[in-house]
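Entry type: protein chain
Record version: 2
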Amino acid sequence: MLKTLSIATLSLALIPAVSMANDGGTLQQGEKLYKSACVACHSTGAANAPKLGNKQAWAPIIARGMDEMMTVATNGKGAMPARGGTKADDAALRAAVEYMVSRAK
């Protein structure tokens, strides 16, 4: 009984660590795509792109929700081409959006 309880307790204790590892992996993937494509406009504000880390510029965008941000990222907006001009799949694109959002909070 004690052995079973210890294993269950250990399993529950590891859940946050596993969750954080997945979040870190997603943000790392997002950062990689950001640095290879998104950085061109989102670091300088070119074509009115909200700059990475600019909380004021990102606040109204974040307020619209992830679905709207993904629609813009997928289809493009203004001078931003669809998928930021990349061939990134939906998961990688979402990771890049999540990375940029994380830097604006």
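Comment: Residues 2-22 have pLDDT under 50 and may be disordered.
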